[in-house]
Each structure stands twice: as C-alpha cells, then as structure tokens.
Amino acid sequence: MQVKNIFNKKMFLLLSFSMLLISFMGMNTWAASDFASGDGSKEKPYEIKTEAQLNKIHDHLDKNFILTSDIILTKDFEPIGTYEKTKDGIDTAKAFTGFFDGNGHSISNLVINQGNKDYIGFFGVVSGDHQKKAIIKNLNISGSKINGANNVAAIVGFAYDNVDIENVHLIDSNLIVGKDSIAGIVGKTEKSVRIHNSSSRCEIKGEEGLGGIIGFISKDTIVSNSNTNSKITGVGHIGGFAGRVYGKIDHSFANAIVIAVGDDHDAAGLVGTLFNGGKISDCYALGKVKGFTNVGGLVGRTLNYYPEGIVPPNPKPSPSIINSYADVEVQGVSLVGGLIGYIKENSIVENCYALGNITLIEDVKPIDSVAVGSHGGGLIGKVDASSKIIGCRSFGSVSGDEGIAGLVGFLGDGCIIKNSSSSSNVTGKGHIGGLVGRCYGNIDNCYTTGNITLIGDDHDAAGIAGTLFNNGSVQNSYAIGTISGHENIGGIVARTIVYYKEGENVPATIPTQKIYNCEFYGSVKGDLNVGGIVGFAQKNANIIENKNYGYISSKDQSTLGWIAGKVDKGAVIH
Q1: Domain around 3
Q2: Could you tell me which residues are beta bridge partners of residue 349?
Q3: Which of 286, 514, 530, 562 is deepest in the core (most CB within 10 A)?
Q4: In terms of C-beta density within 10 A (0-12 exposed, 13-18 middle, 19 or more buried), how is residue 222 classed?
Q5: CA 68, 56, 95, 76 torsion: positive or negative?
Q6: Of the candidates 183, 203, 223, which is a domain's last residue?
C-alpha cells in the first residue's frame, strides 16, 4: 500500500510538471506568433515588420524589439507605456522597460490625438532601474501629428531613470501640440537619462516648457550631439532646443523660430530657462526669437530655484554657459540679450559670443514691474547677484530706451566682466554704453569699438559704461568709436553716482566709483558735461591714471574737459 502511494505521488508531480511545461511553451509560442521572429530576449529580440506587430508591444513592455522594415501607420496609435505613480517613484510594470532598436527604419504617419491626457508619444513612458537600462535607438519618425496635455513628444513623453535614447530622428514634417513640457524627442525626463546624437524637424505649440528636442531636462539628464530645426510657439519657458533645463546640454544646436505670445517670460533660441547647476557647453543657436521679457539668442534666463520646503545647498550651484554662441535676431520688451536675456543670480558665462541684432520694443502697453524698452545688451540684457562674464564678445547692433549697451544692459552689484569686448553699435535714450549701460559691478581688461548714439534730450552715454553706480569700477580698459548725445557724454564713463532705491540700506561708508588706467580713442560729442574719460564725475569718484587720445566737443564750453566735463567737489582726478 505504501509503495502504491509513493508511486501515485510521483505520477502526480510528473503530470503537474508536464502541464506547467506545456503551458509555458504555449505562452512562448503565443508571444512569438505576435511577431515576425525572435523570443524577446536581448540576444534574439522580437522582430517587427507590420503595423499589427508594432501594436503588440503593448503586451510585452519588458521585452526587446527590432524593426526589420519601414512601417506606415493607418490608424491612430496608442502610446506604449503608461504612467502610474507609487510612493517610491513610478510603477515600472506599466512603463516600457526593454529596448527598442529601430534599426535605421522609419515609422510614418504617427497620429496620436489625446489632448486631455498626459505622457503622450510613440512611447508614453519609458523607465529603467538600477539593474537594467531601458534603450530607444536608431529610430526615425516621419510625418507625426501628436496632440496631448502635459509631457508630450513624438518619441517619448516621459523618460524616467536609467534611460538611453540614441540616434533617433524626427524627419520631414512633424507637429506636436500640448500644454506643458512639449517637445520633438522627449517631453520630460526625471533622474538619470541620456539623449545622444538625435535630431528633429518639427513645429511645437503649447504653453510652457517647450523645445524642439526636449521640454524639461532634469538634474541628472545629459543631452549631447543633438540638433533641431524647429518653430516654437508658446507662452513662457520656451526654447528652440529645450524649455526648462536643470541638467546638461553639450555639442548641440538649434536653428529655430521662437515666438512667445502674451506678456510672460523666458524665450530663447536654445533654452528658455537654465536652472540651478544646469550647464550649456559648446552649443549654438541660429534663427529668430521674439518675446516679452527675459528674451535671449541662446538662453532666456538663468536662476536658482527650489520649490517650497526644499532647502537650497550652500553655496548655491551656478548655472553656466561655456564656449557657446548665438547668431539670432532678438526682439523683446525688456531684459533682452543677444546671448541671454536675464541672469538672475550666481551664474558663469565664459568664452561666449553673440552676433545677432537686438531690438527692444517700446510701442506696447506698460506693464507693472516691467520697464518697457529697458535693459538690452548685445550679449546679456541684465546681470544680477555675483555673476561672472569672462572672455565674451558681442557684434550685433543694439537699440532701445534705457540701460542699453553693446555687451550688458545692466551689471549688478558684485558682478564681474573681464577680458571681454563689444563691436556693437548702440542706440538708446538714456544710460547707454559701449560695454555696459547701468553698471554697479566691476569691469576689467575690456574694450569696445562700436559707435554709441544717445537720442533725444536724456543723459548718460559712454564708450564703456553709461552710468557707474556706487561701488562700480572700470579699469585697464579702452574704447574706440564715436560717442554722441545730449548730456553727460564720456569716452569711458558718462556719469558716476551714488544711488540707492527708497527703502534700501545705505552703508555707513559711502561707496566710491573707480575709473583706473583706461584709454579712449575716437570722438566725444555732446551739449553738456562732455569729457574724454568721464562726462560728469560726481562726489566720491576716483578717476586715476587715465588717458584720452580722442577728440571732444561740446555746445557748453564750461562743461567740456579733456578728462572730465564736470567735476563735483569730493571727486578725485589725477
């Protein structure tokens, strides 16, 4: 009896194992029948050559695939991978986690019309983890029409952690429409994502966070060797290449038309807004940009930003732009620059240049807190809070109202411009300069070669700095050109002044403006307060060891001087 029981148990286990094996083999056979060939492994990916097979990816989100032919889609496409949040991140079982090799083939007529849904693209959500990388590569998309809400792109709506996207391209005509984080290649990234050697030809329409390649670049994302030929239309935080950038972009470019509608901010040829430790290196932008405020040829604005409840690191990281340039026609109402519209704080700009012409638009309805027509520069509109501009140049003409200059319209306290130059011609109505318009910071070892023209009956125009405030200084610099205007006209500085806004803390020791070891070559012409070095030296100015080799003329001979036109008691000149 005992032998019989043992025999029955063995037979039961054998039968159970056989049924399980048959079931498993059946599953593999069923999965394989969905595709042309392969088993979904890395070594033998599922082969796809029809539209029906392409749609079967939805049932195998963790497998591996390769295209074996071009595919023309005939029906609206459902994004591959969806978003479902968990307490630790996202549910990767809902996302695509395998690899997809386009094998150089194209998918044409990709149509997704889901205007009320987020995470929209050929791949809606792609995610890897610390053990396995998700990969999208060697894929072309042609003639796509994508409509979604947030995190929308033709290739990937949302890429989350340990994702590689390489050699993917939008070719021919592609239209992508949405609200926030809308782009050609990837809508938004989070954590570690790499985008390499990719390109787009597309038109992007939306509200904020728009770009020809990517809408939102997270801190640990790197985008390299990529480019776009795009038209971007939106409200704010928009760029020809990317909208919001916390990560890095290198060796990339955009040839774009960027149009920001309304009275919002941050529009540029490459990146709308560069945050925190974000970095742009060896990049350039071509085309045209038109916006309201914070408008730039390469970047709209740089700043440190941390959501409420997040304690910023100390010291704060520095957004940086290195070895890059813009050849972009730029138009805006306020804070407009050939390279950058507005540097908010703590940024580094090094070995960069701008070629395009800059125009500040004045015929608009005044807006609270926006100085219409003010602070425009051939390189940067306004620079604040301990930022550094080193080894930079500008060449395009600049025109506007006040705070207009060849390089930087407004240079804030503690900021430095060093080893830089401008060949820009500048036209404005007040506080204009060949290098800086309003200067609270420090200028060292710089030069200018443009002509500076002050129109109307306002004041302050000069070859280097229009108005030198508080602790501002100009040293070891020279200017060549024709400087002309009404009042306070100087070869190097138009006027020195101590000035604090109402409510600001005035230091116990009154600050001193310094002009040291500077030279002027050219001509200075004006009506009142005209000097070869400084037009009007108010008290507390130190003007030392400067040389004028130019020609000076004034209607008022009593305020005409080889070095200074008018000098207040207390100013030091020798």
Answers
A1: 1-33
A2: 321, 389
A3: 530
A4: middle
A5: positive
A6: 203
Using 50, 70 and 90 to split pLDDT, how confident is the model at 364? confident
Picking from 182-196, 356-370, 383-397, which range would have the lowest pLDDT averaged per residue? Answer: 356-370
The Cα–Cα gap between 276 and 317 comes to 6
**Model confidence at 55: pLDDT above 50:** yes
- Rounded mean pLDDT, 268-276: 98
Which region, left, alpha or beta, applies to residue 138 given φ > 0 means left and ψ of -120 to 50 means alpha? left
> What is the tens place of the pLDDT at every residue in 546-566?
999 999 999 999 999 999 999
In this structure, the answer to whether residues 124 and 51 fall within a common structural domain is: yes
Distance in angstroms (rounded) separating the CA atoms of residues 223 and 122: 20
Residue 361 confidence (pLDDT): 93
In this structure, are 27 and 158 located in the same domain?
no
What confidence score (pLDDT) does residue 31 get?
55
111 in the same domain as 2: no
Distance CA 190, CA 224 (A): 17
CA distance 193 to 125: 13
User: Is the per-residue pLDDT at 436 higher than 50?
Assistant: yes
46 and 169 inside one domain: yes
Residue type, 525: K
Interior/surface letters 171-193, b for 16+ CB within 10 angstroms, e for the rest:
beebebbbbbbbbbbbbbbbbbb
Q: 370 lies in a domain?
A: no
Tell me the C-alpha distance between 238 and 266, whole Å. Answer: 6
Distance CA 484, CA 527 (A): 9
Backbone phi, psi, residue 487, to 5° = -130, 145
One domain for residues 51 and 196: yes
Considering only CA atoms, which of 497, 480, 479 is closest in space to residue 443?
479
Are both 108 and 164 inside the same structural domain?
yes
In the block, tokens 């405030």 appear at 469
Residues 102 and 14 in one domain: no
Any domain includes 457: no
Tokens read off for 50: 């029809």
Mean pLDDT, to the nearest integer, of 288-294?
97
Q: Which residues of 12-35 are buried (b: 16+ CB within 10 A; e: fewer)?
A: eeeeeeeeeeeeeeeeeeebeebb
**What is the residue type of 175?**
L
Cβ contact 513:541 at 8 Å: yes
- Is 477 among the domain residues? no
What is the count of structural domains for the chain?
2
Pair 9, 149 in one domain: no
Note the pLDDT of residue 14. Answer: 46
From the centroid of its chain, how far is CA 375?
19
Tokens describing residue 117: 């849904």
Q: 165 lies in a domain?
A: yes
The residue written with tokens 């033709």 in the block is 154
Segment 78-90 shows an average pLDDT of 90
7 pLDDT more than 80: no
Distance in angstroms (rounded) separating the CA atoms of residues 159 and 496:
53
Specify whether the CB–CB gap between 117 and 146 falls below 8 A: no
Does the structure show a pLDDT above 90 at 246? yes
pLDDT of residue 17: 46
